[in-house]
Predict the structure.
Amino acid sequence: MQIPLLDLKLQYAAIRDEVAQAIDKVCESQFFALGPAVAEFEENVAAYCSSKFAIGVSSGTDALLISLMALGAGPGDEAITTAFTFFATAGSIVRVGAKPVFVDVDPDSFNIDPAAIEEKITEKTKAIVPVHLYGQIADMNAVNEIARRHNLAVIEDAAQAIGASRNGTKAGNFGDCGCFSFYPTKNLGCFGDGGLVTTNSDDIAEKIKILRNHGQDPAYFYKIIGGNFRLDGIQGAVLNVKLKYLDSWNDKRRQNAWLYDSLFADSPVKTPEIDTDNVSIYHQYTVTVPERDKLQEFLAENQIGSAVFYPKPLHLQDCFAELGYKEGDLPVTERLCNEVLSLPVYPELSPEKIEHVAGIVLKYYGMS
Ligand SMILES: *Cc1c(COP(=O)(O)O)cnc(C)c1O
């Protein structure tokens, strides 16, 4: 049985007609940059996230970039973040001229370790950028408490966490800005690149709306230097259709994750630990295992897809060499890079397929 890490064709087949109609409507209107489809999606996704504002932008990366710009982060500033994340979290900090300061992650949640933040705060610190990795919200009570005490901005990298909640509050409402990605492989994916910023601040929302269109307000009069961070009308239309199904898809991911959890009980496979305050959307179902690379090879031989998110921590990447980090600086992060493995968890997988994947994993450890 062949089981890829992700198969988007099944999802597409289920919504094909609805999506085709929505795209056709945009084509008929010829509103391709922002326009009514994006406005409608923004309204719906703001309601979905329970955020006052939701502003569509060109990608998750640009959501981070424009949030940092809106909060005034720039040369001379530092932003504290995690090194166990996708490149864009730190890349966007450097692109506004600021310096990323990496701290280690919690060994259970894999999210930023609040206890490691405070000692890295200097007079240059401008913001904290926690990431809700794999669909689980970071310990935002602790992060926000530190941010309040030191008067720091908080930008949530919620690219992997749309619909996730902590104590009933949805991702995107803990910080000054919440940054989302609609890259096709995300839980809510569009047909290309897309992203979104949520905020509950009138001022920040106003600034982001101006920044995403070159800083113009009104047309052809430029208040500030922005860029082209617009979301396409076609992406807005696709996302509007898909948003209706997001909760049911996230539910199915959770069912699949819980089935894996039970199948891996009493095995060498360490299953994801979800804080009791959290509802995860399992963007990834990521275990830590002994002999990770050999297990991954064994899975490939058995036609099962898997992936390592992420094989090399950001603080040791060549592009950040001048920040001066060395091996051993972030021990939990570095260990996780050698031990994590993400298994197929997408909503369309049947229980039989989850059992099959788990069976092959356990077979590698001589347990089935
Ligand atoms: C996907 C992702 C991004 C970037 O989103 P794009 O839409 O691909 O630009 C940023 N941060 C994290 C944690 C992500 O997973």
